[in-house]
Amino acid sequence: MRVFPAVLALAMSVSAERFVRFISDDGQIYTGDAILSDGTTDASKSTSARVIQGDIFGNFTVTQEIKNITTLLAPMAPEKTRTVRCVGFNYAAHAEEANITIPDFPILFFKPWTALAPPNGQVPVTEGYQTQGNFTSEMDYESELVVVISKAAYNITVDQALDHVLGYASGYDVSHRGWQIDRGGLPQPQFSMGKDADGWAPWGPAIVTKDIIPNPQNLSIFAKVNGVTMQNDTTANMLFGVADLVSFFSMGITLLPGDIIYTGTPSGVQLGKADPVWLVDGDVVEVGLEGLGTCTSTITDSNATESAFDPILGFTGVKQ
């Protein structure tokens, strides 16, 4: 059998570094390995990617077929994720600024997969979260390291934990302190209603593999609001590191491929400040980590009565 060189090159397998999912100029959705722009490791600035064929959680091939990125989506379709686990107060300075006792064990809460959203887009603030009478809309920012699980984990040890990780991303844990704290009931806080709205978990821009990030505990992490740096820390200051969290969350509870863990935010948020400046309609929040890229979100008031969530695309934008 004669094999043409062009066909051989098209199917040539190379190691993936940054898994991205995107719509190309032909209108189709692709998974690819981001081609980085010169001088950056931020896939949110990539304009093209090598197409990946197969399952990134199993067997796949990175081809030499290159497609333009016209719309960057979250690195996985939301329907691929069974659970979104989140960690509260995982940096000592953040716990202290919020006047919370430093926890002895990780604080776990969940977001629904309907909260998952692309790395660049709108964060919807629907009517129930807007200022009404004496109730203030207390929208806040939280920059976080996101962990993506690669294979099932159940009662695994800390030493085994990173073998169950596919890679890492940046994430914005959108938070409304009014519903989390003021209307949280007792005991406070009540996370879910202040964390779980559609589109309140932007993440990406890529899943960066462990080959690129062998140690997730030495990454700088930041958040900016309208270009001003509000959070600036390092994942070295996490109370519970990635391996600890993956092991702990597998205690009697199965972690599955595609599950996501938001690992907590450092200090610098508005929660706990004497005179907090809450986010308002039009504010731009940028979160990111060293080597993982950035997510840029615009706070957007909405009076929508129809959902803009899609199980393939994620949150698709504010409907008025």
TrEMBL record:
Q: Which UniProt keywords apply?
A: Metal-binding, Signal
Task: Cite the Fumarylacetoacetase-like C-terminal domain residue spans from the record.
Answer: 84-299
Which SUPFAM superfamilies does its entry note? FAH
The residues the entry assigns to the signal sequence are: 1-16
Q: Which PANTHER family match?
A: ACYLPYRUVASE, FUMARYLACETOACETATE HYDROLASE FAMILY PROTEIN (AFU_ORTHOLOGUE AFUA_1G02370)-RELATED
Q: Which family does it belong to?
A: Belongs to the FAH family.
Protein name in the entry:
Fumarylacetoacetase-like C-terminal domain-containing protein
Q: Which organism was this protein described from?
A: Lentinula lateritia
